[in-house]
Amino acid sequence: MLSGDDLHSQINTVLKKYWGFDSLRPQQEAAIAAGIEGRDSLVVLPTGGGKSLCYQIPPIVARRTDVVVSPLIALMKDQVDGLRQAGYPAAALHSGLDLDSMREVESGMANGRYRLIFAAPERLVAPRFLQWLGRAQIRNFAVDEAHCISQWGHDFRPEYRQLAELKTRLPDVSLHAFTATATMRVRDDIMTQLRLRDPVELIGTFDRPNLLYRVVPRIDVNSQTLDILNRHRNEAAIVYCLSRKDTESLSHSLSQNGIRAAHYHAGLDPEKRRRTQEDFMAERLDVVVATVAFGMGIDRSDVRCVIHTALPKSVEHYQQEAGRAGRDGLAAECVLLYSGADAMRLQSLIERSAAEAQAPAQLIESGIKLLNQMRSYAAGMRCRHAALSEYFGQRYEADKCDACDVCLDEVQGVEDGTVTAQKILSCIARTDQRFGATHIADILAGAKTARIRQWRHDQVTTYGLLGELPRKSILNLIYQLVDQGLIDRSEGDRPTLHLNSHSWDVMRDERKVQMQQPKSTKSVKSSRVETESWEGVDRGLFESLRDLRRDLAGERGVPAYMIFGDSTLRELARQRPLTLDDFARVRGVGEKKLLDLGGGFVAHIKAYCEDNDVPRP
Ligand code: ADP
User: Fold this and answer.
1) DSSP for 55-111?
2) What is the location of CATH 3.40.50.300 in the chain?
3) Radius of gyration of the chain, Cα coordinates, nearest whole angstrom
């Protein structure tokens, strides 16, 4: 048994050798210790929190082979490729391998050549594999994306259920579950299903300080998305849409505006999906416009922006999807384009699909509750970091996060919100509360539609009363009033708007109303993390290092981030090392990468600095 100090120094040696990092993050050391000791554990860390190291380091330190259960072949392949780039012996066993490759992995396993073997859950309990495990004396298993075992999670996979058998079939093994899903219910479910014995529970902080959250009233998806992406030219971004059709039209419109974008959804043929995914990983593509089908398995760590063009179903979904931004720890932006209409649409979708599936009332209720929590987040005006942390049961300590639209004071209220609300409400009153939001918006905008002529609504006093605003803005304002409970909306296929007692309070000037409008791009600020992460960085050099990285990745047939992550490139463009010794000291440079890439990178940096008269830092 190693003493605490010895263990600490061995872990640090391994960390520097393979990854070029100098220290572990909170929780990593305890998780690694549990792995080395073979004590069951449950590790909950946010996306980008560094879970992989927690199962990658123990088998190296303990000089043994461990198995990692992973839900997707793409994820396994990426991890193995990434590890090999760092000189770490790993392999994956999956149905995509041909017979020769399979044999090679098997014999490597028998010879103890690998420290990690990645495998799908269903393979693990197959008799043949169990025999191998016995022969190779494998005793420690990491279960990645462990929430897939729980029906209460956002990504249930029935094949994960088979892992429940592991502890029965191999009673003396240790299991280490990893997930970013924070809810208690899912956590408990994971421990029960996997039959963890007296596990070490390590729960990290869910807040992601490097993410800047914004919620913006949705007026025009295409132009708003383009505006946001223009802040991230040549950077990686994911845009989530509700429907397949929306992904296609939005990606088309972005491409026409010079953005390297493609769409992705489950209805595309697998070949096209694979190509889009690969192009994105290889940096041939900057933006993927997708349904939620795009996500797990996308390990690109330098995603600088995630945009939701519609409301997600729950805060868990939102955190998971938005969390794909900034996994490398550098600043990234997450924008939710919000319209209250989404919540209503989603609610009727939940009700309809539950009725079709004859689901129990309880399920519908819980779906609607989750949706309403998401809606409160979107419509609320609290610090986004605090709201998200508290949703997951953690206190947010700082008064001001300096990384959300609310704390950056960007939110622009509609000037004279009460008067605008009164105009909307009186339009509803004057048309006898018989019409829906679109028609009311048309009247207020002074539109000339057939319906307006048919009902002679161009004669009512509120016609054109908000003519200075585009129709879509008026529509968004109407939904803000619905969200605030100041207008009722009927159910059914053709919902109509109605006044309630609160509406009359507003009309009588007894209640003030605040409404939001999108901020102009000019008023958008940078977070402290963003500003600091660029301090001392030569941007031109950073961009030219990205080009070099892309070329090297192309030659090697691996995703670009596997050469070096963005944080290492920024560090290089900041420190500008001109010798191999200096290069070796940069965070993210391990032994193998120093040998493989050091010479080329140092020469490139030297040439760039000379050509551009960049001084030594
Ligand atoms: P997760 O699986 O929890 O989403 P990863 O394991 O992919 O997160 O790690 C996210 C990023 O953080 C990776 O780029 C990884 O190299 C980096 N990272 C992890 N641990 C450390 C550390 N101790 N020091 C510096 N970077 C780290």
Assistant:
1) HHHHHHHTTS-EEEE-S-HHHHHHHHHHHHHTT--EEEE-TTS-HHHHHHHHHHHHT
2) 4-203, 211-409
3) 27
What is the structure's pLDDT at 291?
Answer: 92
Residue 428 Cα, ligand 1 centroid: separation in angstroms? 54
pLDDT interval class at 195 (50, 70, 90) = very high
pLDDT by residue (tens digit) across 5-31? 788 899 999 999 999 999 998 899 999
CA distances to 413, 482, 596, 608 from 538, rounded to whole Å, are 38, 49, 24, 11
Neighbour count for residue 201 (Cβ, 10 Å): 14
Alpha helices in 416-489 (DSSP H): 417-430, 437-445, 450-455, 471-483
Q: In angstroms, what is the span from residue 28 Cα to ligand 1's centroid?
A: 10
Please state the pTM of the whole predicted model: 0.87
Which of the listed residues 21, 47, 321 should we mutate to test ligand 1's pocket, taking the one with most ligand atoms within 8 A of CB?
Answer: 21
Residue owning the nearest CA to atom 21 of ligand 1: 50
Residues having CB closer than 6 A to ligand 1 are 21, 24-25, 28, 45, 47-53, 301, 327-329, 565
For the 211-409 domain, the top CATH level (class) is alpha beta
CA 327 to ligand 1 center in whole angstroms: 7
274-279 LR contacts (CB < 8 Å, sep 24+)? 277/74
User: Which positions ≥6 away from 296 have C-beta within 8 Å?
Assistant: 71, 72, 75, 145, 155
Q: What pLDDT digit, counting tens, does each position of 563-600 carry?
A: 999 999 999 999 999 999 999 999 999 999 999 999 99
CB atoms within 10 A of CB 516: 20
Give the residue-averaged pLDDT of 516-528: 75
DSSP letter, residue 170: S
Q: Give the residue range(s) of CATH 1.10.150.80 domains in the chain.
A: 534-611
**Centroid of ligand 1 to alpha carbon of 567 (angstroms):** 11
Instruction: State pLDDT tens for residues 449-468.
Output: 999 999 999 999 999 999 99
User: Is 72 a residue whose pLDDT tops 90?
Assistant: no
Which amino acid, residue 107? S
CATH number, domain 413-518, options 1.10.1040.10, 2.40.50.140, 3.40.50.150, 1.10.10.10: 1.10.10.10
Ligand 1 pocket check: which of 52, 202, 205, 321 to mutate, most ligand atoms within 8 Å of Cβ? 52
How far apart CA 300 and CA 76 sit, in angstroms, is 14
User: 4-203 adopts what CATH topology?
Assistant: Rossmann fold (3.40.50)
Q: CA–CA distance from 181 to each of 191, 323, 438, 495 (Å)?
A: 13, 11, 38, 36
Convert the pLDDT of each residue in 87-102 to its tens digit.
Answer: 999 999 988 888 899 8
From 13, 14, 327, the mutation candidate for ligand 1 (largest count of ligand atoms within 8 A of CB) is: 327
Residue 251 burial (CB count, 10 A): 23
Q: How far is the CA of 39 from the centre of ligand 1 (A)?
A: 22
Q: Where are the beta strands (DSSP E) in 174-222?
A: 174-179, 200-203, 211-217
DSSP structure class, residue 362: H
The CATH classification of domain 534-611, taken from the options 1.20.120.420, 3.10.180.10, 1.10.150.80, 1.10.645.10: 1.10.150.80
How large is the greatest C-alpha to C-alpha distance in the chain, in angstroms?
A: 88
Q: By C-alpha distance, which of 374, 322, 321 is closest to 347?
A: 374
Length of the chain: 617
> Among all chains, which residue has been given the structure tokens 């449950």?
42
